[in-house]
């Protein structure tokens, strides 16, 4: 094992550009965009919001009044038609999963770079169409995995790469939240299959340990198993109020994960290696803790608690301004869609299911 | 939710007998018996060791010299023949899995009560024969699940029963250890299918979260899935150097578990409920911590760190002396053997596998 300093870190190690601004149109101004994205862009170094796109004129007006930089409140039709397109350089898509394709398509037609929320779309086929839409154009398409620029996660990845925990063997992960306490509305899109896609909890929550494991291990899913259960009435149209699923990665590690949209708030991802272990806890709900254990010593590493959305936006802008590729490009997001398709299929068939390869 | 005091606990709540002694013959005097069992019985209130049974006369002699109470060092043949049977009341079986049946059979023939290590035997069929051997006799057969008398685990069970975490939804569990660092011998029985049975890590380690979840939830496994991997040469004869497996319990909860015999030491079991969560961490390696979270408050409960083997032996002796049944009887152990059979079968077939019912 190389000597590794736990203390010397640059939380913005990916940043190469310090001048320049990417002007964003935010497509979809729901809870997430209002609570997390707008403040994050306001705090960012390389981004500004100049337009919002929403179905509600009143909401657009309210948001415009709160942020000086926003000059345009557009309807979805106006956005698709290219109204005020000169006012922004890039588009952030944060609408129900099944509408991503439409909005990414509009952005690509307008020649705008795109940061698209995960999961990339409602189904594998539609996600393939998203990638296809951007393919062969100059548009940068990135899928919004905010864990990739979270300092604790990057730190964990470096420790694993340096062999601090030996060979990774098994992973344990979980992501639970009480969705109906957070958004007390049974009619929300996350519970409607035509908008959310395959289901409610693995699509929205399970994707975090699934994808963060890929990032930590530099490995992709090969095969999956899953069990799903929906008991509460509001979840009757989706299979996975709760889910337990296992993932075999192509480095031979086995991941064992749970997700629940009706569970107490809890997030964790742990990698057990032959020589030690690394734990991210809490992991995924906008705050990330890091613990490293080896040879009987357990170290709690307090990394800088950053605004994960600010870092994600600045990383995207940095790559766009530098003309460099993004890590979580369309192909990267597609691998998760292939895994999600297999996970939901496995729950139905009860069989270990191979994950399609790009 | 009933008001629940986190502080008022009797760590020996099960104890009803304070006089009397159960004299034990220990069958199998390997690492576990020497390091943990002999000192535990020495410290116990209701037990004493009067005989040891082993294939090595030298080992028997060494152990006899260390403990005044031990009058007899017997060979397996002498034990089977009833030599010095008047010197002990009960038998503790801690030999390789595939030899439990033989020794339990001898004990039953001698009319001795039996505390048998888990898993009960190497295969489901042999475990059924163990139960059959004791069935219809006056012999008390208990399977040695030490978590059932661990104060933190009992405390966790009471909290769950009292509704402190709402409805249990998903469980996450893990049990890893570096077997070949602990016992640096590739020829050990845990790696030999004819002695260990179905495999190495779920049989020996995965059984802890599998069974402790049953105890916490008062629920039994209905269906399982699993993935297994053996990479290191020493594990070539067993399928599960590492394993990830999921369990559906009959209360609708889904458990997601990992086990590794070549991983860093780590044990945990967490129950996520609709209103809170309970975590045992560390969980299974002779020390157990308890954390309870609800409504934004996380409480670390420091229960008495007891000698888990001492408590297990005293509980067994208490029930025998009181003429009361044991919790982990043969039928209880058999349910785990049914689950283990299904878990190993599921890894081979890649299919969700129903767990046989007693």
The chain-level structural class of chain A is alpha/beta
Largest sheet of chain A: 9 strands, mixed
Terminus-to-terminus distance of chain A? 34 Å
What are the low-pLDDT stretches of chain A, counting only 5+ consecutive residues below 50?
A: none
Number of helical elements of chain A: 11
Helical residue percent band of chain A:
25-40%
Query: H/E series of chain A, N to C?
Result: EHEHEHEHEHEHEHHHEEEEEEEHHE
| Rg from Cα of chain A | 20 Å
CATH topology of the largest domain in chain A: Dihydrodipicolinate Reductase, domain 2
CATH 4th-level superfamily of the largest domain in chain A: Dihydrodipicolinate Reductase, domain 2
CATH architecture of the largest domain in chain A: 2-Layer Sandwich
Number of domains of chain A: 2
Assembly form of the protein: homodimer
Average the pLDDT over all residues of chain A and give the rounded result: 96
Spatial arrangement of strands, main beta sheet of chain A: 14-13-12-11-7-10-9-8-15
Number of strands of chain A: 15
Shape of chain A: globular
- Please report the first level of CATH classification, the CATH class of the largest domain in chain A: Alpha Beta
Please report which band the strand proportion of chain A falls in: under 5%, 5-15%, 15-25%, 25-35%, 35-45% or over 45%. Answer: 25-35%
Present the secondary structure layout.
The structure is a homodimer of 358-residue chains.
Chain A: E1 22-27, H1 31-43, E2 47-53, H2 57-66, E3 72-74, H3 76-81, E4 90-93, H4 100-109, E5 113-116, H5 124-134, E6 141-143, H6 151-161, E7 168-178, H7 179-182, H8 193-196, H9 201-217, E8 221-229, E9 242-249, E10 254-260, E11 262-273, E12 276-280, E13 290-294, E14 297-301, H10 308-322, H11 330-349, E15 353-354
Parallel strand pairs in A: 1-2, 1-4, 2-3, 4-5, 5-6, 7-10
Antiparallel strand pairs in A: 7-11, 8-9, 8-15, 9-10, 11-12, 12-13, 13-14
Helix pairs in contact in A: 1-10, 4-5, 5-11, 6-9, 9-11
